[in-house]
Specification:
Strand content: under 5%
Protein name: Tetratricopeptide repeat protein
Number of domains: 3
Radius of gyration: 41 Å
Shape: elongated
Mean pLDDT: 75
Low-confidence stretches: 1-41, 143-157, 545-574
Strand order of the largest sheet: 1-2
CATH topology of the largest domain: Serine Threonine Protein Phosphatase 5, Tetratricopeptide repeat
Number of strands: 2
Largest sheet: 2 strands, antiparallel
Amino acid sequence: MQKIPPVQPDMKSPEDQAVSQPRYLDIDSNPEVVMEKNIEEVLPSMVSLNDRIFEYGRKLNRWKELDSQSVDLDLSDEEASQMVRCFRRLQNILNGYGELREKMLRARNMESAETINKNEVFELQQKDIAFLESACGRLLGTSQEKSIGWSRREEKADLAQLETLIDRYAENKEYEEIIQVWLKIPEQQVGRVHLRTKILYGNALMYLHQEEKAAEIYRMVVDQMSSSKEQPSDLVSLRKVLADLYTASGNYREAEVQYKKISEDYQTLGHLEEWSKLQLSILDKSMEDSPELTEYSSLLRNYLGFDPEKDGYKIVWQAEKFLANYPYSPVSSNVDDIKARVLQRADDWFNGFFETVDKLSSEKKFEEAMELLETIPADIIGTEKQIKIKEKNQKLLLAAAVEKETEKMAQIQELQHQWNNGMLLVKNGRYDEALAVFTNLLDTEYSKKAEKKIEEVSLQAAKADRRKAADLFIRFTKTSDIESKKKLLIESRKLLKNILVKYPEVEIGAKVIGNIKRVEQEMMAIDPNLIALADREENAVEEDGIDTVFASPGVPVVSGNEQIKEQNIQTQQP
């Protein structure tokens, strides 16, 4: 029975993740139970996402092996079609997990306000389960294969895939994740790891301020390149980082060895040569417990692990402090160089940050822009930049207020336009259309005016229909033809009944009910079955859906007889 890791919330720290025991969902159990368990969770953790991406990467490699073998096999059309179907399903799931991971990373880095649809996550996991249980899952799996987490990776894990993961993590500055993946590389395979991957791992250690471990990796890279035919400039650059790491970590003896090699072997390499000479000068002239050397080591350590989003201008200030304390230091020009490089990167970051804020502002996303400004820690940007942020925040507040007032004015103008349109419809006797317009204004700033106007227009409309009914009744009294009399009475009664349906609260309702009684008396006198016949015809029309189309919204259709029973009001003549 195959199992897959369930959706798990992100843990608080890598240490928590290391000690946490994974829980599994039994995909052979009741599907409804599985669905409920998945829905209860929020979002998958990065650990479980990486696990699924890794697993499907393995399945993709297995599919490629089978596909290459199929060239020599005589596959049937059905078998070939199945291979294609499996590839498409596999690719769809792998892409789904990859896109979900990218969305979570963007949300973590606050690059986007994009929300993650939990239903899409659940649907993706259901596809995962279905794939594992299908013929495709059996085709691309082995009898010994199990879905296992990162903490249980076997030494046979594909080295190329691990290197690819490290590459991906490095692009997103996920340094702790790089460390975790590196630990999964079997010891006997470390020598086969590509130099680029080793450098990325060394950089991750450097950014996490693990200088001694970083120096070990860079020493491995330098030694490996020294015995290879790589370009000397590449080797010198790496040797410089290694020497700086030794200095930053306090291993001055090894630092001196590396700087001497740079000076001896590559004296024509300009800036690196000058850097190494100056580094050697401070190592030659200072004791290991020298405050100047200790402070320089600290500056160099922070410079090597510099991240503008995290450090801002702090290293610039540290360099300035060093130069103020040791103006005649042999490495003062190197410190100037560090300061210039860090200042450029910090300015690029800060200006890019403001460009993002300005872009949000241009899109009228003022709240998002102000929230973004709040994410910059005040202690990494200095007073001048803090003032700039405060001024930008004030501008955003003003722009937001102006935009809000502009929208309010536009809404008022639109409401006034609707009101004027409704009044024009009343003037032209199109009462029902006018009532629809005024009804739409009930939940707006025109609510009270609209409510009063609805009452007035309803009365006007009811009186107009009552006059039409009276005209029909008068024509009835002047007509001698029996069939014409019936039609006039039926039409007059219908108009009166519609008044009670369309305008139920109108003040002439009692008069209308009396008019209906009077018309029905005449109908009974002509034909006792005429009222029933008229009601049947009306019901037939309702069944055809015509009355439903023309009825006022939300008003139930009530027959005249039912209305008469509900209201016992004195009869009045039309």
